[in-house]
Amino acid sequence: MNVRSLATTAALALAASLLVATPAQAATFVSFNPRTILAPGLPSGGGVDQNVTPVGTVSLNMTATQTAYVVSKMRVNGATIRSLFDNEVVCKGPGGWSKNMVTGQNVYDIHSGSPLQDVTLYTRFLVHPGVAGTVTCTANVRGNSLNANDATYRLVSGYIQFADTSVVNATNGEPVQSSVSAGVRSLNAGIPVVRLPALDYFNLPSSVNGLNVVGDVELMVCWPNNPCDKYDTTLVKFTLFINQWKSDGTLCKTDSSVQITHDVPYWVHHKYVPLNKADFTVSRAAGCIPRFNAYVKAEWLGGQTAGIQGTAVGLTDSRGSSSTHDSDMSHAYVLPY
Known about the structure:
- Keywords: Signal.
- Residues 1-26 form the signal peptide.
- By secondary structure, this protein is mainly β.
- It has two domains: 22-167, Jelly Rolls (Sandwich), CATH 2.60.120; 174-337, Jelly Rolls, CATH 2.60.120.
- The protein is built from one helix and 21 strands.
- The chain has one helix at residues 3-19, and strands at 29-31, 35-39, 51-62, 68-77, 83-92, 98-107, 119-127, 133-143, 151-164, 177-179, 184-187, 193-203, 210-221, 233-246, 251-265, 270-281, 288-303, 306-309, 312-316, 324-327, 331-336.
- Strands 10, 11, 13, 16, 18 and 21 form a six-stranded antiparallel beta sheet that branches.
């Protein structure tokens, strides 16, 4: 067989192989297309008519021991009326496993003159079904107008992705993460400090050199809402604490370098407060072991009452749906490295 024949045979073989059906690879990163989001007006009879707009889905085939890190970023602006903007991620997996999380903040209208008319929210957490199979996560924009008239706002950009598909687990085989349970934990003159979300003591493999620690908090303004001066603000300081321990139970190392103070107006309703210490180095000093805990300390400094929001209960699966689900809100987790 001459060279030309060999080349022809190879070309035909390649063409044939391209015609063979191969399983499609599931997307692990999806960018959101810009779009206008409907925010329905408040019903005249009371309650909320919340719209749910799916904007992207990612999937990942996982083993029983695997932990992955899912992140959804959304930026919106251009609201015609002040409206609720929620960035929700709904994940489902094998054996009926599910985990959902939502962050939210009101977006001010385009005529407000406020920087709060342009809002970016991250919703991020760890997924660990504990059973081998495919995990699928969908990002939803949830929203409604905050008066009787329908509103719109613009999803400008964003994405959903599995940012890490092999997160190191604690020595018990579970991911290091925790969410605040349902309800709102009050912050006021009588209860000026709340330590939530919190990660109780956890042990990591001795090979871990550092921790990337995240505490994402939802601060609710005016909780409870009576009495409340709707033209005032609440002033709250947030500090992310990370501790490493010795084998005798005494403190080895602590870090509280990540701090921020927010003066939040009532009309924001709930303020997204992200805290992140990306480079907590594990100490190898005498007696120190890879045992840790972490929490966000919220300190009420003045103004109106406030609270830390826990899991949102009874969210509709879609607009007008009778089926519902719960989604975590204030949440903390660790990415060991």
